[in-house]
């Protein structure tokens, strides 16, 4: 199945989630050089994305999680 | 690749990790399909697929990356079936995302939203992964199943388009290279006609 193939490939090259943030910070630091001006909308995009992450989870997700164990 | 049946404790670990990535899945899905209700449907579909495929998850690897693959594949499949057309959310609460100190105009959420939805899906997802999700080009390429150079090119084009739209106030009406962009532009025209567009603000 396609997912399995992709996931198998990812297992070798993917970093753990806790490393992603660090790598991202390093990249941001590189970009902050005098030559590379970050467009104003870039932080807006980040805020838009982060604001969804910070939203409280609707009950429908808790219901779904509760139902998962019954599926086996 | 064969995996032994997961133990009860492994299933509990999987569920815990799956629970932790839900907010990230919601953010990615919202960026992809615009409307919060559709985005949450997509996340729930992703969670069910991930749960059913959990034997194929390699413990210790990134749950976020693994589930993002499932989510973007589900999104693209649904989009081909005409379920998502990058619909603009009329009910989105208006707020200012960034308010620059200088002479520049503040960036409004609705403008960001509309600009994102005019991008072709492949460029939008590449930008979301790299520009908001914090993935490297390499990781984004793995998620999208394409070459790193392809991701770099998509992100570059997406960035150029957003800069042009949001900084130069030039919302394109020519870029009809896919139906998604077309639909989003038609919707945006409705907004402009209603007097809420970018032009009405300046």
Map the helices and strands.
The complex is a heterodimer of chains A (72) and B (202).
Chain A (H helix, E strand, L loop, with lengths): L1 H12 L3 H15 L8 H15 L4 H10 L4
Chain B lengths: L7 H26 L2 H17 L10 H18 L15 E3 L8 E2 H10 L2 H12 L4 H8 L3 H20 L11 H15 L4 H4 L1
Antiparallel strand pairs in B: 1-2
Helix pairs in contact in B: 1-2, 1-3, 2-3, 3-6, 4-7, 5-7, 6-7
Features:
heterodimer, A: mainly alpha, 4 helices, 72% helix, B: 202 residues, mainly alpha, two-stranded antiparallel ribbon, 9 helices, 2 strands, disordered C terminus
How does this structure look, described?
The complex is a heterodimer of chains A (72) and B (202). Chain A is an all-alpha fold and 72 residues long. Chain A has helices spanning 2-13, 17-31, 40-54, 59-68. Chain A is rod-shaped, with a radius of gyration of 18 Å. Chain B is 64% helix and 2% strand. In chain B, α2 packs across α3 (63-80), α5 crosses α7 and α6 (137-144) packs across α7. The longest helix of chain B has 26 residues, at 8-33. Classes of the chains: A mainly alpha (72), B mainly alpha (202). The interface between A and B is large, with 45 and 63 residues.
User: What spatial order of strands do you see in the largest sheet of chain B?
Assistant: 1-2
- N-to-C SSE series of chain B? HHHEEHHHHHH
Give the overall shape of chain B: elongated
Number of helices, counting only DSSP H or I runs of 4 residues or more of chain B: 9
DSSP strand count of chain B: 2
The end-to-end distance of chain B, rounded to whole angstroms, is 58 Å
Structural class of chain B: mainly alpha
* Most strands sheet of chain A: none
Largest sheet of chain B, if any? 2 strands, antiparallel
Low-confidence stretches of chain B: 173-179, 195-202
**Number of distinct helices of chain A:** 4
Radius of gyration of chain A: 18 Å
Q: Could you estimate the helical fraction of the residues of chain B in percent?
A: 55-70%
